[in-house]
Amino acid sequence: MIAIIDYGMGNIHSVAKALELSGAAISVTNKKNDIAACDKIVLPGVGAFDDAVAELEKLGLDLLIKEQVRNKKPFLGICLGLQLLLGTSQEAKEKKGLGILEGKVVKFKTQSGQKVPHMGWNNLKVVSDDCPLLKGVVSGSQVYFCHSYYPDPDNKSVIAAITDYGVEFPCVLWKDNVYGVQFHPEKSQAVGLKMLENFVNLC
User: Fold this and answer.
1) What's this model's pTM, rounded to 2 decimal places?
2) Does residue 119 contact residue 146 with C-beta atoms inside 8 Å?
């Protein structure tokens, strides 16, 4: 069973449908006991960093997520859900991230000549052949983005894939049982479904 955390900040329906198509039994929930009882956790996210952290804190899910990650439960953060894994964000005025991965979230610079937000299809370049989430995914595959900020981890070894949008930025992070994607796999057709299938099939 995979818990999809429903904290009012994610595209829950699309994520749930895509995971079901990938063979998962799912539970859409914000109940701590339900989340703790599941085998894997997905944290979607669309919206503002401060608001997302505030909602997680209000529900007590910030501490639960950290505990579950420490217990080696497979965890996938999607878009804002990935950004929340890091320590700080340039978007945030008040809140800190979960700090599960050391680093920060930074905003695209408009002087790169690209429109912000970065929206639509773009290529990913696989830089870690060992990442289980990317099994069967080749460099040049296209995935769907919608974001103005991107992750900048301190430890570059956690970067599993990158994308070029005026600047090269990490689009897949991986450390042990923790995975994060800056794009939306649930909107990325066959490539995204392959990644979600890989997550579903993790031991």
Assistant:
1) 0.97
2) yes
| Contact (CB, 8 A) for 153 and 160 | no
Going by C-alpha positions, the residue among 196, 203, 197, 178 that lies closest to residue 65 is: 178
Number of domains in the chain: 1
* Percent of the chain surpassing pLDDT 90: 94
Residue 145 lies in a domain: yes
> What's residue 47's pLDDT?
92
Residue-wise over 148-183: b if at least 16 C-beta within 10 A, else e? ebbbbbeeeebbbbbbebeeebbbbbbbebbbbbbb
d(CA 38, CA 124): 30
- pLDDT digits 0-9 by tens, 173-199: 999 999 999 999 999 999 999 999 999
Assigned domain for 96 exists: no
* β partners of residue 96: none
Q: Quote the tokens at residue 199.
A: 């997550």
Catalytic residues: 79, 184, 186
Distance CA 119, CA 146 (A): 4
Hey, which residues does 168 pair with through a beta bridge? Answer: 164
Q: Which domain holds residue 84?
A: 2-90+103-200
CATH of the domain at 55: 3.40.50.880
Confidence of residue 111 (pLDDT cuts 50, 70, 90): low
